[in-house]
Recover the amino acids of this structure.
């Protein structure tokens, strides 16, 4: 099962903004975030392990206060950027992700997602002997209330339970 959508948001690499929309692809074990709308240059952030269940919270207090989790390890994802040579060559700069933190907060009209992380030094695709410096990344996007069921492919019953939790959270805040 996989989920994909584009959302208003931003991706920053070392404080440089890469677009104002985020494409999110969510599978059973991975989240892929990309700069939306770019056909030639592709920026991808792969985060794993990741599960759709990490984004679901039904406790109204935690929904409004927000929840977070942190993942750290030798390799918990990667950042790729390219193609950097001829578009058909498939040459991408590559860095391993060593840590990331996801913060999620439910508002009455959306789920707010913020992700920040760090990479190791990388390898230049154009010169395999050139090391690229480590980088910091952050991603922000909102999943609008009306798009939650479609993005997560929720059944009607699951959608109704989640939206009821949204309403309870909004009433308590």
């Amino acid at each position: 099962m996989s989920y994909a959508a584009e959302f208003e948001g931003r991706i920053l690499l070392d404080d440089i903004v890469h677009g104002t929309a985020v494409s999110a692809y969510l599978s059973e074990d991975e989240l892929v975030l990309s700069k939306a709308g770019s056909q030639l240059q592709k920026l991808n952030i792969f985060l794993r392990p990741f599960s759709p269940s990490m984004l679901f919270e039904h406790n109204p207090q935690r929904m409004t206060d927000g929840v977070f989790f942190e993942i750290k390890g030798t390799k918990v994802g990667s950042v790729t950027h390219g193609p950097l040579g001829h578009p058909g060559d498939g040459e991408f700069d590559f860095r391993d992700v060593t840590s990331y933190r996801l913060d999620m907060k439910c508002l009455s009209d959306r789920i707010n997602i913020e992700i920040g992380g760090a990479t190791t030094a990388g390898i230049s695709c154009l010169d395999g002997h050139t090391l690229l410096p480590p980088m910091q990344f952050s991603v922000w996007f909102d999943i609008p209330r009306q798009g939650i069921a479609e993005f997560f492919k929720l059944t009607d019953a699951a959608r109704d339970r989640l939206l009821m939790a949204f309403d309870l959270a909004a009433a308590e805040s």
Summary: DSSP finds three helices and twelve strands in the chain. Residues 68 and 103 are 4 Å apart (CA to CA). Residues 3-172 form one domain. The mean pLDDT is 86.
